[in-house]
Amino acid sequence: MQYHQSVDKLLLYLFGPLVFAAALLVIATGIRRAVTRFRSRPTPEQLRATYEAYLRRLLNPQPEGVERELGKLLPERLLQLYEDRSAIQEAGFQLEKPGKKSWWSKPWQVYCFEPLDLESLNELPYEEALGPGFCFATTGRSSWYWIAASDQRQKDSPVIYLDYDGSGSHGVIVADSLDEFLNLPRLPTQ
Questions:
Q1: Which is it for strands 159-163 and 172-175: parallel, antiparallel or unpaired?
Q2: What pLDDT score was predicted for residue 56?
Q3: What would the DSSP string read from start to end of 38-81?
Q4: pTM of the model
């Protein structure tokens, strides 16, 4: 039986076009995704309109509707926070707990405050185990700062961190009161 040199190229002839077609498919899919991502980006006008709608909601809190929906009353200190227009508009900072520093201690990121209205209440997470409450601020990364509502209006309430990002801090008490939380030393975000 005689060996033909063309047998060496048989695999190339059979599978070469398949490999080439697969490579083209991967390239075409990548280009399609890039075009779709580029086209779906909001325009500057859309971003401005979204921000203005957020700001309008933030500066016009609707605590009565939230309390009616919760069937409980929000703490007095939270209502005071939303009355202070300059404080509620602060964004992009970190809160640092004073005291002993360790290698694992981290500052608490605050991306922005959430509007106090039914839309936020319905969009934000609800923790069955914690009961009625309101997520008043977010880290911007699937985590929120939550405060409890109660049958009688309380002066203040502890701030609890709800972490849906998986860092293991879910349910941690950040501060014993909202007043303490708001008065922690602030650092710029990194």
A1: antiparallel
A2: 96
A3: HHTSPPHHHHHHHHHHHHHHHHS--HHHHHHHHTSB--HHHHHH
A4: 0.73
